[in-house]
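Standup notes
- DV: blocked on the single-chain target, sequence here:
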Amino acid sequence: MARIAGVDLPKNKKIWIALTYIYGIGRSLSRVILNKAQVSPDKRTYELSDDEIRRIRETIEQDGIKVEGDLRREVNMNIKRLIDLGTYRGLRHKRG
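- DV (later): unblocked, structure below
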C-alpha cells in the first residue's frame, strides 16, 4: 500500500483519484503532479513501483505544495487572524 504525505492511499483506485485522498490535492492538481512525475494517471495504486511512488513524493515536496497538516495549520491560522482582527468574516467564524 502506498503511503504519501502520511496518508495510506486506497490500493484499488486509479492513482489520479487516490491522490485526492490527501488533504489539499484535488483532481486537477493530482493530474499535474502525475504529469511532472511522469506517472500514468490510469495506473492503479497497487501497480506503482517504489520508484514511481518516490517520484510522486518528490514532486509534491519540490513544488512546495502544502498538504495535510501544514495546510490545515495554515487555514486555521488564517481563520484565527480574521477573528483577531475583528473582521466580519472572523465574526462569522466565531459565531459558528
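- Follow-up: The two ends are 38 Å apart (CA to CA).
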